[in-house]
Amino acid sequence: MVSATAPGKIILFGEHAVVYGRPAIAVPLSQLKATAVVSPGTQPGIRLIAPDLGQDIMLTDASPDDPIAAVIWQVQTAVNRPTLPDLTITVSSQIPVASGLGSGAAITAAVIRALASFLGVGHLATNAWVSALTYEVEKIHHGTPSGIDNTVVAYEMPVYFVRQASGNHLEPFTVAQPLHLLVADTGVRSSTRVAVGDVRRQWQAAPEKFEAIFDGCGHIAVAARAAIEAGDTATLGALMVENHAWLQEMTVSSPELDTLVTAAANAGALGAKLSGAGRGGNMIALVTPKTAATVRAALYTAGAKTILAATLEPS
Ligand code: MEV
Questions:
Q1: How far apart are alpha carbons 11 and 139 in whole angstroms?
Q2: Number of structural domains, the chain?
Q3: pTM, full prediction
Q4: Domain limits at 197?
């Protein structure tokens, strides 16, 4: 039996604009994990169990768009194994689905690692390989992913990411001061595919306006990286507020997200913004150890369903 995990992720800056080649910054959310366990089959064939989804099926019965089946087919192709031994894959995840925290990418990456290891080709499963295969699966579900989600969950490190046709540009960066974040869930589930598709339609209808918005987000990501490297949390907070305003312009915020962002700011957060595809899901607030409790309480009062604390430690 082998098992593997992959973390959730938080986009700090640059979601959506990253699809259009602007830089973005994302960090792993390592306290929430997806786990895949592969064990020898007790039945002929490949059995897929996902207790969280109430799923227990044979691969041969999976629909063509079944997310776990898609991962298995990708791995089979990548390792050139048209037939697999009898096995059971069990998938579970602590990452809420459709909430901007990278649940799909994490499940995919965990299954890829566990399956590669079970098949005796674990040496192939470098971070780059897992990221590339996860990206292929993300394309099936999300249409035009930038590649940032698969990158951050496969490498499990903070990344400054730029999508490029010639091969994505990925830079680690240093963190000078601890960054204390609260990650608050609106409880509203939202499809990344729909949000990304809506932004694309708006960009096609008003390219100049949207290119300017994306440029605005790109400049913020560049400035944010410098602020993280300098430990300038005041600037970082202000950049989060600016980034949220651009995301509102893209129409990917929501009344629930705006309420939480405003509540965090009023309670003394250095900055706050939605995180991920938007329209629901999670927002993040930058706090200090002193303001954390007040901001947390204000977020709950404003309707947050769950709140996680995440600290980005100096590197
Ligand atoms: C989703 O986590 C981030 C988006 O920018 C989409 C993507 O980059 O693929 C909204």
A1: 19
A2: 2
A3: 0.96
A4: 179-312
